[in-house]
Amino acid sequence: MNLDHQTIARVLGVSEAKVSHNWPLIQASMQKHDCYSDLSAAGALATIRVEAPPFAPINEYGNDAYFTRMYEHRTDLGNKEVGDGAKFHGRGYIQLTGRANYERYGHLLGIDLAGNPDLALVPENAAELFALFWTQHQLREVCDKTQWLLCRKRVNGGLNGYETFSRYLWPLLKEGGYLAPASQ
């Protein structure tokens, strides 16, 4: 997507400094993992705005009590030990969650994410995690077919955040030249 950092920052309502620091890392990782296209970039930018509103890798919002209630003993996430819910809460640009995901993606990156989950907050690691997730969930293909509801479902498991996603997606597509201007 041929949008400059200033335009991305304006459309997403985030600081240009955050976009200038983080977007090149994400874009390069997406290109490296062959999941970058213009439409995929628009979907990625809108997704990051939903999942990590300051446009930087973040800890999932909540505290240990919340994470324990939401994720403890979630075998679908690989959380099998006491404390896994809080330890393996969401982190990054896309909110990597659960022991199994930290182990799998850590192995793919060659880093010990399970032993040190906060490594998912390092921008370079978070960008790689984002691109790997995007690739493994075939989100480039989904975005290239403009299946925006499916994009959100594959990221979040449902439509949580779809309104916010849409609020940023359509202006990105318009600014990127993918939507014709409304007729006068």
Structural write-up:
The protein is mainly α and 184 residues long. The protein has two domains: 5-57 and 125-175, no CATH class; 59-121, Endochitinase, domain 2 (2-Layer Sandwich), CATH 3.30.20. The protein has helices at residues 5-12, 16-32, 38-51, 64-71, 84-87, 99-109, 123-136, 139-144, 148-156, 162-175; strands spanning 58-59, 91-92. The two termini are 26 Å apart. The mean pLDDT is 95.
Name the beta content range.
under 5%
Helical content stands at 55-70%
The average pLDDT value, as a whole number, equals 95
Oligomeric assembly: single chain
Number of domain units: 2
Strand/helix succession: HHHEHHEHHHHH
Low confidence ranges: none
Please work out how many helical segments DSSP would assign: 10
The main sheet comes to: 2 strands, antiparallel
Q: For the terminal residues, how far apart are their CA atoms? A: 26 Å
> Major sheet: order of its strands?
1-2
The rounded Rg comes to 16 Å
Q: What is the total tally of β strands?
A: 2
Shape, per Cα inertia axes: globular
The assigned structural class equals: mainly alpha
Précis, in short:
Helices cover 57% and strands 2% of the residues. The protein is mainly α and 184 residues long.
